[in-house]
Amino acid sequence: MKILVTGGTGFIGSHTCVELLNEGNEVVIIDNLYNSQADVVEKIEEITKKSVKFYEGDCCDEAVLEKIFSDHNIDAVIHFAGYKAVGESVQKPIMYYENNLMSTLALCKVMAKYGCKKLVFSSSATVYGNPNSVPIHEDFPLGPTTNPYGTTKLMIEQILRDVFVSDDQWSIALLRYFNPIGAHDSGLIGENPNDIPNNLMPYIVKVANKELPVLHVFGNDYDTHDGTGVRDYIHVVDLAKGHVNAVAKVLKDTGVDAYNLGTGNGYSVLDVVETFKRVNNVDVPYQVDPRRPGDIAECFASTDKALKELGWKAEKGLEEMCKDAWSYVSKVKKV
Ligand code: NAD
Ligand code: UFG
């Protein structure tokens, strides 16, 4: 099958391209390189020994999308392209609504025009807002979201449901990711933000690497086993494999369905820090600071639906996530 991957040079997109190619698919990428580098395409090719067609372009630009669909017979699309920084979305809501919504609308328009109605969308566990209980099931109430980024995901889910109501030939999987971390074990692709990271794992890595002095643990007075926030961390390679199964599902069926992609295990901030220190034999100094506004105590997935309907479940544990996250960054440092 020939799969168009928007945002395919980004963190999750690049790992997904690898898994799609490993399973014998052809891959076409569109990315405007807002948050990634063009050399990721070569890294994907180096890992898989297969070639990839790359378009540097913006998904809001219908003309570029039309060019791709007229150059290629695309069977299905995975739509990763978008902005994802929660804090930045509060500062720049218009930029977030514009990019995340307009890219999706342009994509759907062009897909419909070319008769390709198979879509896998990158949503987020953030659509559940502050859940009443854990594990979180897909039929839990959605929202209210706590930031414009999360609202874009909720709005796009609704838009895609409306698209299906208008035309039942569409087949759409809404994938709600929990907390993706780690990197490919080749050490060639991974996550290494240039700015001060917002998320826990990239921050830990920069502290371990002595690029930042200390990890700030946001609160130790939550109602969790050690007082720090609990999340469902998932290895990005497992997450990528979930997309291969989701593509198979949308190619086979029609309809709109949401799936949690998580492991079903909750780990606290201190669980992650201690595991990272132990498996990598490095120090990660930390201090406890006040809670971060908007954070919830605990968030982890029910994984039953993804197992039952996609035939997918995560296999890698926290130790492997911590090892792979560190080995990617150590390798980047050496180059
Ligand atoms: P990323 O920033 O690494 O990748 C996104 C890619 O999209 C980047 O390469 C960027 O250059 C590109 N892009 C952005 N806007 C574009 C546009 N208009 N046209 C073309 N390319 C564009 O992010 P990621 O972590 O790989 O996340 C991928 C998707 O998954 C995003 O939609 C994100 O919101 C979602 N998601 C991520 C997480 C997470 O923790 N990483 C959690 C839940 C959901
Ligand atoms: N944390 C710290 N210190 C830090 C960073 C994070 O203590 O420097 C804590 C947070 O308070 C939280 C946990 O580590 O308890 C995880 O925080 P992250 O920022 O890594 O992840 P979040 O769960 O807050 O958010 C992530 C993505 C969102 C997505 C959400 C739900 O960043 O895009 O998961 O899927 F919406």
Quick description:
The chain has 335 residues and is of the alpha/beta class.
Written description of the protein model:
The chain is α/β, with parallel strands linked by helices. Helices cover 42% and strands 18% of the residues. The protein has 11 helices and 14 strands. The strands form 4 sheets. A 7-stranded parallel beta sheet has the order 3-2-1-4-5-6-11, with helices on both faces. The chain has a 3-stranded mixed beta sheet with strand order 12-9-14. A two-stranded parallel sheet has the order 7-10. Strand 2, helix 2 and strand 3 form a beta-alpha-beta unit. The longest helix is centred in the N-terminal third of the chain and has 21 residues, at 93-113. The protein binds nicotinamide-adenine-dinucleotide and uridine-5'-diphosphate-4-deoxy-4-fluoro-alpha-D-galactose (UFG).
Quick one: overall form?
globular
**Oligomeric description of these chains:** single chain
Which structural class fits the helix and strand makeup? alpha/beta
Q: What's the mean pLDDT score?
A: 96
Q: Counting H and I runs of at least 4 residues, what is the number of helices?
A: 11
What gyration radius follows from the Cα positions, in whole Å?
19 Å
The overall strand count is 14
Distance between the termini: 35 Å
Residue ranges: pLDDT <50 for 5 or more in a row? none
Give the strand order, joined by hyphens, for the main sheet: 3-2-1-4-5-6-11
Helix content: 40-55%
Order of helices and strands: EHEHEHEHHEHEEHEEEHEEHEEHH
